Amino acid sequence: MESGYLVMRRQNGNKGEKYVGTVRLVEDDSAVIEWPGGRRSRIPLPAPSDITVIPVGSVRYRALRDFQELKKEFSKSPVPVLVALLEEMGGEATVKQLQDETRHLGLAAEHDNTWWISIRKRLLGQPRVTESKSNGPLKLIDDPFQKERDLPAREALEFLATPATKRPRGLDQALREAVHAGQSELTAYERVAAHVLKVPLSAWPASTNEYTPQGVSQKVLAMAVEFLADATKGQRRAKNPTAEPSPKLGKGGAPPAAAVTPLLVGLVTTPEDSAAADQAAKLPRGLMAQACVMAVMARFESEDRTVGGDHLLRRGTVLLPEALDESPLVPASQREAFAEELLVRALDLLLRSAGQRPPSAPEREWVDLVLTAVPEHTLQLGVAATDTEDLAAALKALPDRPDGSRERVMLVLASLADTPDNAEQPGTPANPAEASAKSAESASAGIDPGPAEDASAEEPKVQESQSELAPAVTVDAGTPAQEQEAEGDAPGDTGPAEDAPTEEPTAQAPQTGSPTPATTTDTDAPAQEPKADGDAPDDADPAEDAPTEEPKAQESQSEPTPAATADADTPAPKSEEADDTPAGTAGAPAPVTVLAPEERNRYDIALSRERAVAQALRSERDQLKQELAASQRRYDRVGEEFAELRARLDAVTVELAAATRRGEALTRQAQRREQELRQARQAGRAASQSQLRQARIDGLRALAAVLAEVADQAAHATEESDPSRALYRRVLAQAATAGLVDIGTIGEETEFDPSRHQAPTGPAERVVVERPGFAWRAGGAQEEVVLLPAQVRRAEP
Questions:
Q1: What is the spatial distance between Cα 367 and Cα 553, in angstroms, rounded to a whole number?
Q2: Which of 64-78, 525-539, 629-643 has the lowest mean pLDDT?
């Protein structure tokens, strides 16, 4: 009995009115009880038979103090309540007795016999409940799996994940309880495996940020990969793949959708040889695959890249095709941006490794794999932005195989070598012999320079006059006083490139888009006037950015006009009808401009750069779209986190109730142990007091025998002054201080008392004392212990 216990006392047997009190004070041999109304009383210990002691936390205690909560728990899960009640009933009871007890407590009054038959079967399914005999009373035994329930959570999970053909009934449940009790010790992958093994878990911790499979057994990892495969199977569908999260995510302690990618990344980047990690590399698609590939690249870029490189390469080989696949799960712009970033990092890894130390075999194979897998246009842009000399030297470290990455990059480098960035600008004087040789090589190779319409997108437009066309006159600004004769002055003639004068350099053309100044002779120098069929030459607009090797386009005119004389620095007006005038209009054919190969290559490079700028703008647009989608996902994630917090609150509430029940059970167990200890202490104290009492009685009995002898001598003394009489009175007075009293005096006549008198001649109604007896009275108590009965004889009538 402990302070706080309840006691119940019934008057007039079990049918009388019951009174429930609370234990307020417990002493060694008594307890103070407070009854309703504040009245207190003291009961002896051990408690009398008419008092029932009800420990704190027991089913009866909860029925008296928190009946509604107990009834709700019984309605939801009656088996644990009945097991606890069976333990309180002494560990053995029939179903009928349990039925009567629950009805007496007010729990199962509405249930019929069919319900109790099913409950019996469920009770027998508990590991601690068995039958004393076939179809006999239920009996509670010691927990056979208590050792398993006390296991650490990780060890119990390992045991639970081990495949077994047959296990004792109740073992799996005991292991699940052990894992549930220590779930805070589990890693992320162990929590996933525990969910697969049907362990009741709380909501996934929102603070989880460590996804490291090292130290987790392969059996547990295999269970986690099994769940991840089921959660991502929608992405691997051949038709209509979807990136929508599985409905199983985030429920019953399962990881949320946001945790799937980190779980996969942690598995595929582990440097250990793991069959579960290899299997996980086959699961991701789309953005998940891209995240895994980038994580593998980061591992190769890290300081400890030499650890587990073979395993990373094996998984990266599986992941890379899925990350670059044209899947509907990933927008094309995002896939291109991923390929560009991956290529840049691969080239940087190759150059960095070549500059520091020779790359390891897994690094070489990984870079070779990336350079082989990226698209051709991505490879060209990436190589063009890299130092070609360093790259050419670093390529020697890659494996040389047909159609491999080394050959691909070398071809790109060769094409870039043919189109150097330091090519001459338009208008720069060139070697005529070299220009003629290159033109001849182009003609012999069958290269078609293309019509003027095809070159118009990359070259300056030839300007035409609005009303009249005149032969174009081109004179070097730095070489005055030289006369240029226009050949082919017929209207509509256009001079070929071979007819261009090469003896003197022409003025350098301005940049594209700027007006071209008209170069004519001064009016004060008649020797420099151009010779034309007309009296005055028309204004000539040379083509913008045209190279010095090319002729100026000759424009036809309907009537010869005088040549316009102007200063060399004054630009000629640009005709706005040049682009809009179709070929053959006004009797003039379309102008044709022929570019040299070097000039064409420069324009090709400029066009590639403009395309790169456009691609960057598209990438920026796609990035903004991704940020918008990320914001939407964050908004959705906040909703998911709110739902997770609510689920966690519910789980914590359930755990708190379970912890409360466990605490109450432990309290009851501790109280039982303390009561047993107190009872043992009380029993020891009682035994000690009994032994002391018996020892005192034995000593006093010996003293009583001595006093009887002294009394006998004093009785037979003839004189009053006999010393034996004085000695008897003195010893009798001292014995009285120890509670020793005499029984009768010699010659006294009294009624016969069988407990105090001894009659050798047989009992009689009246007897005479022949020899006094002695008794012991402890502490003045009314009860006395007869040490030596008085010797009596029958009284004479």
A1: 52
A2: 525-539
| Cβ proximity of 23 and 41 under 8 Å | no
The answer to whether residue 81 is domain-embedded is: yes
Residue 302 inside a domain? The answer is: no
Contacts of 18 by beta carbon, 8 Å cutoff, 6+ apart: 8, 9, 10
Which residues lie closer than 8 Å to 771 by C-beta, 6 or more apart?
708, 711, 712, 715, 746, 790, 791
Q: Which amino acid is at 370?
A: V
Q: Which helix (H) or strand (E) holds 734?
A: helix 723-737
CB 304 within 8 A of CB 345: no
- The yes-or-no verdict on residue 254 having pLDDT over 70 is yes
How many domains in the chain? Answer: 3
- In tens, the pLDDT along 463-497 reads 443 333 333 333 343 433 333 333 334 344 434 33
Q: Name, in order, each residue with C-beta under 8 angstroms of 571's C-beta and a sequence gap of 6 or more.
A: 515, 516, 517, 518
HEC-encoded secondary structure of 572-621: CCCCCCCCCCCCCHHHCCCCCCCCCHHHHHHHHHHHHHHHHHHHHHHHHH
Question: What is the number of residues in the chain?
Answer: 797
**Edge-to-edge strand order for the sheet containing 129-131?**
92-93, 138-140, 129-131
Collapsed DSSP state (helix, strand, coil) of residue 51: strand
Say how many C-beta atoms besides its own lie within 10 A of residue 567's C-beta. 10
Q: Where is the domain boundary, 357, 391, 416?
A: 416
- 747 Rama sector, left if φ>0, alpha if ψ -120 to 50, beta otherwise: left
Give me the chain's average pLDDT, please. 74
Strands 790-794 and 773-776: unpaired
pTM, rounded to two decimals: 0.46
DSSP single-letter state for residue 234: G
Handedness of CA 574, 579, 583, 587 (dihedral sign): negative
- Give a yes or no: residue 179 inside a domain: no
CA distances from 728 to 104, 120, 713, 758 (A): 69, 78, 9, 22
Rounded CA-CA distance 578/711 in Å is: 165
Q: Which residue, of 368, 396, 416, is where some domain finishes? A: 416
Mean pLDDT of 406-412: 86
Query: Which residues lie below 8 Å from residue 88, measured CB to CB, with a gap of 6+?
Result: 58, 59, 60
Banded model confidence at residue 458, pLDDT cuts 50, 70, 90: very low
- Nearest alpha-carbon partner for 473 in 410, 545, 390, 530: 530
Q: Phi first, then psi: what are they for 267, rounded to 5°?
A: -70, -50
Most confident region among 333-342, 343-352, 750-759 by mean pLDDT: 333-342
Asked if the structure places residue 28 within a domain, the reply is yes
Write the CA distances from 300 to 140, 316, 345, 378, 542, integer angstroms.
Answer: 61, 11, 10, 21, 57
- Written as six digits, the tokens of 543 are 């083509």
Q: What DSSP string runs through 331-384?
A: -HHHHHHHHHHHHHHHHHHHHHHHHHSPPPHHHHHHHHHHHHHS-HHHHHHHHH
Question: In degrees rounded to 5, what are phi and psi of residue 530?
Answer: -70, 145
Give the model's pLDDT for residue 328.
Answer: 86
Q: Could you say which DSSP state residue 1 is in?
A: -
Contact assessment for residue 250 and residue 223, using Cβ atoms and an 8 Å cutoff = no
Give the whole-angstrom CA distance, residue 83 versus residue 138. Answer: 10
What lies within 8 Å, CB to CB, of 161 at 6+ separation is: 193, 197, 217, 219, 220, 222, 223
| Domain carrying residue 121 | 6-140
**Quick one: which H or E segment has residue 396?**
none
Nearest to 469 by CA among 569, 381, 585, 348: 585
Task: Please report the pLDDT score of residue 523 as a whole number.
Answer: 38
Instruction: Report residue 63 as tokens.
Output: 């029925």
